[in-house]
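As a warm-up, study this chain.
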Amino acid sequence: MKHGDGNMTDLGYRVIPDLYAGIEPNVGAANIKLGLSFDYFIRKIDYINVEKDDVNIRNSSFDIHYEYYDKKIMENLIIKTKDIWCIYNEETWEWDGEIVDDIYAYWNNSVVLRFSKRQDGSFILSSICLQNKYKGKYINALGLGDRVSLVLDKYDILFYADLHYLAKKININELENFDDNLDQCEVGFVNNLSWEDREIIKGISIQTNYREAVDITNFKDQIIESIEVFIDS
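Now compare it with the structure written out below.
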């Protein structure tokens, strides 16, 4: 198998994620492209179905070091299943007046695909979440386990709702356009200024071990736990 060539890996008519492939915002990751049809996907995989309890237990494990996993976590279907997809049909729910209807697919507890229902009733791949043992990187520099500050020479890092977003760096000549939060200008970077008129890198968000903004007190300690790429038109 060739790693990181930017194409979806389809071995023996089975979709297999490439855990070493590069991360492309608004495009894809793991050599799987956003926009993929669920009807096509489900025909090209081997899978088992999992339930809501399996998902809840799996999600709770992220706050626990593996050395302290109890039997319930160790025996969780999503965590223990290897080299086969785990499919979860989430119950529909309402958010901001719209009905949310998603299907999730988990691979080796490291790649999570979310297929979202469209108005025509079909499901397409709307996001890919990368966790645990995923080895691929964004711009060959930023991956799981890395300090998010590695890209501060190229991007400002904005923060909202527990997630970090990348924005085109503001150079020193542009600072006069921003009157608020200039106390965040430390150690040569500008961080968490107004979101207005910012050139955001579309289709990528980052979660670290901190649920707070990157600043002078913690920028060396914020370690990436997961990266999500998604459709952002």
